[in-house]
Amino acid sequence: MARHISTQLIHHPYQSPEGFAAPQPGVFKASTVLFKDVANMRARDWRSRAGYTYGRHGTPTTMLLEERIATLEGGLQCLLVPSGLAALALVNQTLLSPGDELLLPNNVYGPSREMARHELTRWGITHRMYDPLDAVALREMISPATKLIWLEAPGSVTMEFPDLTGLVAAARQRGVMTALDNTWGAGLALRGFEHGIDIVTQALTKYPSGGGDVLMGSVCTRDLALHERIKGTHMRLGLGVAGNDAELVLRSLPSMALRYAAQDQAARQLAQWLQTQSAVGRVLHPALPDSPGHNHWAGLCDQAAGLFSVLFKPKFSAAQVDRFVDGLQLFGIGYSWAGPISLAVPYDLRTMRERSPYQGHLVRLCIGLEAVADLQADLHQAMAAAFEA
Ligand SMILES: *Cc1c(COP(=O)(O)O)cnc(C)c1O
Fold it and tell me: Does the C-beta of 306 come closer than 6 Å to ligand 1?
């Protein structure tokens, strides 16, 4: 029987070549790597994992983290980059050329769309947005110029869970490469390669770090030729991560599955409770039966990240919703998620979609590791002050 991922992340077969037999990995930092002699220097291939050539091409610490993230995602190869957004950029820059078209879900992580609007457009790469709940429409949108389809499950902020199976089938039928931004699924609730996806990225900034103190991204593959293509671009662009940052993620990985499960439980409890509150119009969480794409989530996952959005009743103004967020004492106001501190961010859906199907003002909540009863009491007092005054 395959061991649970939390066990695999602690008992991992990969050993750094230094042979220092402690369970805790060493932290190696270097720009220069010395060679024994010139012949050795000339014979060393920067692409090979059998040795080291230069700090940017990898150290024992960064290679160890790459191996563990590949395991987490169910991939075979992994590259580390300085942020989750840089992972998206690396994939785009490797696979897309002038004249190509990119398809993005209409609920995609905002900065991903901005990259398409700015850099990709400037480089002669076009993009269109698709409805992640409509695989038939996606199949019809694919043109001979379509070279890459991004997937996100669920979409950022509005949390619609895509018809992942249908979308991947449509892409494969038309021979188009797929890439999944798996920051939400984190390799725990969702493993992209099991569903036929070609490339899986993650913002390690979120659950793998878990501490809110590091920015990092990963790009995983299960195809050596594809990995080497991405690795070539990675090298030529000068991307890499620091040993101390890799150390922070390595230290957090063994507790990741526990944190994820705890934050999932807490978020679901609070999402269900919020649904019963009079100020709340709707709660968007893929595990709730009336959340868009719930059936797709239920078909693929039994876990969820500790993240959901609340739509307050349309009778409440944006100013009242802002007052609710300002009134929270335990929830910080800030971006990112998956750290120990719960966070709240109000979003204006009109600036995010051409047409928003939702009524009312939205607040996205990320649940940290505080006690659920304390978070519930905090939400309760802030709602009372903002909406009952
Ligand atoms: C946070 C996030 C990113 C970007 O990660 P950074 O490390 O902050 O650049 C990308 N995709 C999704 C879905 C995210 O939530």
Answer: no
pTM of the predicted structure, to 2 decimals:
0.94
Whole-number Å distance, alpha carbon 109 to ligand 1 midpoint, is 7
- Report whether residue 83 contacts ligand 1, using a CB cutoff of 6 Å: yes
Residues 6+ apart with CB under 8 A from 19: none
Span from the CA of 235 to the centroid of ligand 1 (angstroms): 22
On whether the CB atoms of residues 339 and 205 are closer than 8 A, the answer is no
Closest CA to 69 of 239, 201, 181: 201
Ligand 1: does its nearest atom lie under 6 Å from the Cβ of 215?
Answer: yes
Question: What are the phi and psi torsion angles at 140 (to 5°)?
Answer: -75, -25
241, 336, 352, 365: which to mutate for ligand 1, most atoms within 8 A of CB?
A: 336
Would you say the CB of residue 202 lies under 6 angstroms from ligand 1?
no
pLDDT per residue as tens digits for the range 314-345: 999 999 999 999 999 999 999 999 999 999 99
What is the 30 CA–ligand 1 centroid distance (Å)?
27
Taking the centre of ligand 1 as the mean of its atom positions, its distance from the CA of residue 32, in whole angstroms, is 31
* pLDDT digit string, tens, across residues 46-77: 888 888 999 999 999 999 999 999 999 999 99
Strands of the 77-81 sheet, one edge to the other: 77-81, 217-221, 199-203, 177-181, 146-152, 101-105, 126-130
Domains and CATH numbers, the chain: 38-255 (3.40.640.10), 256-387 (3.90.1150.10)
CA distances (Å), origin 373, targets 260, 269, 279, 286 = 18, 10, 19, 22
- Note whether 297 and 352 are within 8 A (CB): no
CB 219 within 8 A of CB 90: yes
Between 372-387 and 318-327, two packed helices, what is the crossing angle to 10 degrees? 140
Residue-by-residue DSSP string for 104-115: EETT--HHHHHH
